[in-house]
Every structure is written in structure tokens, then in C-alpha cells.
Known about the structure:
Number of helices: 18
CATH topology of the largest domain: Heat Shock Protein 90
Radius of gyration: 37 Å
Distance between the termini: 70 Å
Amino acid sequence: MADIIQLLPDHVANQIAAGEVVQRPASVVKELLENAIDAGAVNIKLIIKDAGKTLIQVIDDGKGMSVTDARLSFERHATSKIRSADDLFRLHTKGFRGEALASIAAIAHVELKTKQENDEIGTRIVVEGSEVVSQDVVVTPKGTSISVKNLFFNIPARRNFLKSNPVETRHIIDEFYRVALAHPSICFSCFHNGSEQFNLPQSNYRQRIVNIFGSKANEKLVPVEEDTEVIKISGFVGKPEYAKKSRGEQFFFVNNRFIKSAYLNHAISSAFDGLLKEGAHASYFLNLTVNPETIDINIHPTKTEIKFDDEHTLYAILRASVKHSLGQFNIAPVLDFERDSNLDTPYNYKQKEEPSIAINTAYNPFKEEKNERNYSVSNNSKEQTANWEGLYVGLESKSTKSNSDFNELRFESLPETASVFNDAAVEEKQSTYQLHNKYVISTIKAGMLIINQKRAHQRVLYENFLQHITIKQGASQQLLFPLTLHFSPRELEIIQQLKDELEHTGFVLKLKDDEILEISGVPMEVPESEVSIILEQLINDVDNEVPDSHFSTTDLLAKSLAKSLSIKTGQSLTKIEQEHLVNSLFACKEPNVSPTNRVTFITMAVDELEKKFM
């Protein structure tokens, strides 16, 4: 029998590796930015076009590469970061596998320009689909410039799975945030379709956070500092009152590398226990420094998940550090058994004479007689009150008749009449009931109807908002005083993309500058106090839904607004509200399911009820 196992060609192996390393344009951005940092760059520029589908270019002023290194960098498992297997446990650099450039070159057109500081001329290499097209000398400044064009040009199936440009751009910006936050000493700039998105100068960590998330972020930050033999913690957490419904501002960095860890995230949530509203998530920007030998970075293709030797100790230290910072800066209550004398009430007036007030206890201007209704005044005040005596003329005679008058008192009342409705009509009028403030029960001819009030109201609001956006006639109520809300540049970009649809629902908004949104009108169904919560929920939905290129932003907006404004579980409804909800639900086009395709009601026939009692 002939042999059937054979080695794959290099270009096929590279494409398979690219499936793990390069998932979308943001993956390319991450790899190229990390290579620039490993090269010792001080200034890094990121240029993208069409959300990275057409062009991704990273320019740095690092140490550059020689001619041989430039050519070897596109080979698989070629790296300058490690020499032996033991080096995997002493990593101080970003990239180390040597697959990034080889994988990127297998699925794109790549142009590399690089020059070392002491060289007079640099090297230019063009690679298309793992094939080196040309290599020649070029005049270029010190450092490296890599251009990745036409991503997934030879894998159309992967290209078709990419999301819309706004979604892919958000993923790229997320990666840009993560790298820029981890290295505040490096100057970063970002350009998209020719316009500058970010220009981050060299700064400290706090200033880098403010430059990315807006000046309003400065007052939200609470510093966290802890230095132990096991771990060193530095960074900031957000104050509880600024917590958001989204997890967009949660960053863990271990040895300057961004990671995701549900376990450590739980430590932060535990430290904020009792301080956050339900459904809110605390913000944090924390740098953890540990011994490289105590972590394993090489367990995930994207290197965003790592394994710690002693997670339980790190959990306890992290939780205690955050809790201590919240208490130290008077964010959370703490027990303090050391009394501060400056806060004591000054009871040192024992030797001073207390002020007194002279009172005539015998004086009573309203002395009341036991058997009379009128009042008498003292002799010394009769002359002053002589004019008032006329007011009491006839009181004595009236008081003597009061008993007889009350005996003959009668009340007017309407005659009792029979109800114009029969008993059946009365029962029909009260045919809805609320169960556990969660379900609305209504009687039907065949039996019983049980409605989930939250899902039903979401369906009603969803179709109403969808209709308003479609016909562009959403009713709006003008605010007496416009609302001024602060958002990060990234959040404002999302709102800007949905601005037309928001205005069709009834919002009247205007972007004042890079961080402020002014709202002068809201839809009729939206209370003024809920506006900021609704917009935060909308931004969170846009981030988490990650719609594809065929997804309707109108549908997403209607779903988000319906979810934010719907009746919540536990809310008590009056009889009129219950009946209105039932009637509105069955007036919808699709009353059976909620906007998220979950059942809104069930029916139970009389026969089913009878079987329960058998």
C-alpha cells in the first residue's frame, strides 16, 4: 500500500497558521504594533484604510533589521526573542513564536522597508502569498515600515466572514488601546482613511488614560498601589458612581502584556461588592508585575490568556489591594479604631455662663372657662381687645342650641341604583391578574393566558420604535434644560454612526466637541433621568452584538431602546396597565416572541388544568 502521509507545502502550512494568528485585521495590527515595541521604538504610527481590509501600515523608529534578518523574518518559526525552550519561561518581549510575519505574508501583500541606524541604505522586500516577489535596496529612515495590503486576497471565504467596516474598525481601536495603555512612555498615533484618530504623546499612566478616554476620566480614577514579594500592582480603578453597563473599560496588564482573566476580574468585582448597582461593571486599569517564570504565556494563539502558578494568592492580594484603595480614598466605608481628635465635638464650655431666658410661667392669655365656649381676657388687656368682643356676640346662644341642631342633622345621598352591567360584564372587566409582579394572567375562552410582562412590553416597544425610525416621524419632547453628557471619543463615534436613527426615534442631539454630547429632546416614552443609561446600554449593545455587514442598525437600535425602556420584572401594574399591555401585545405583528426571539406568552387550556387535579 502506498504511503499517504506527506509534508505540507510551506505556503499551505503558513495559511493554516494564519488561521490561528490572523483572525481579522485587528490581529495584524496587534502583531505589528508588538513587533515595533520589541524593536525599541519611541514613536509608532498606525495607518489603516477601509478598516484594515485595504491597508494596514505600521511605521516605527526602532533599531531596524539587517538584510539577512529582513529576509529571515518571513520564514516560519524565525525569531530573535528565544534561543531555547527555557527562554519561554523568561519572556520579556511581546512576540516570540516567529509566526506573525510568515502568517500575514501568506494571506496578504506585504511590503517591508527597514534600516539600521549605522547603515547608509535600507532593505525593501515585497511578499505576496508567501512568495518573495522582490528584494532590493531603498532609501528609508531608521526603523521599520510594514504595509499589509489586500488582507485575505487569496482566501475569499475568510474575507467574506469579516464584519462591516465600523465593526472591524472598533476591533482595531481596541487593540490600539491595549498596546497604547501598556506603554505610556511611547508616542502613538493612529490614522484612518486619511484622518487622524489619535495622537498620544509620551506621558505617565494616568495621563495616557485621560488622553484615550477623555478628560472626564481623570475624576473617575482611584489609584491602586501594592508591592509584595509575589506581585506588584499599580494602576487605577474607577469610582463606583461611574460604573457602566459595559465592560469596555476593563484592562489587565501582566508584565506590560494585555490579558483576559475571568478569575482576576472576579477579584475586582468582589472588592466592589455592595458598591455597584445591579448590572453595572467597575472600570479598572491595572498593571501586574510578576516573575516571568511563574506564568505561562504560550497557552493561547493570541497570547491574551496566560496561566499563573498560584492564582489563589494573586486573587487575594488583588482583591485586598483594590478594597484598601477604595477605603483609603473614602470610596467605601472602613472601620477605623483610631479616634481623630480633630473630629470631636468641642464640649469645652463648662466654665462659661450659659445664656438664660426669663419666662413668666403664670401668664396665660387664653385662659379657658370650664362651662363656657367663649374666652375671657385679663383686666389689663381689655382696653386693647375691646374691638374684638363683637366677634363673640351670640356665641353663647348658639352653643346652647348646638345639641339640638346636631340631633336633626341630615345627609344628602344618591339613591341606590342597579348596576348597568351584568355580573358577567364585571368579571370580564377584571379578567387580568398579576402573578409575582412578573406574569400577567388573562382569561380566554379556551382557558388561561400567561404573559411575561417584560418580554411582552419589549415586543410592543420594539415594533413602535421600528415604525418610528422607518417612517422617520418619531415624537419628541423638548427638554427645558438640555442634557450634557460626557463620552469617550470611541463612544461618541458609535453615537455618531447611529445619529440619524436616533433622531428618527425622537432624540435631538448635537456633538459639541470631542467629548461632550448635548441632548435637547428625547422620545415621548423616555424619561429624562434614563437618557444616559439608555445611551450607555445602546453603546454596550453595539459593542457586544458585533453585527455583520448585512445587519440593520435600525433593528439594533430598536432592540436596545426596547430593552432599556421595557417594564422590568418585579414592577407592579394596575388593572388598566395590565389590560393595555395585553391589548397592545396582540396588536403587534409578531406577538408570540420578544425582539430576541424568546416566548412572550403561553396558554393553558381548561383540559390541562383538569388533568392537574386527577
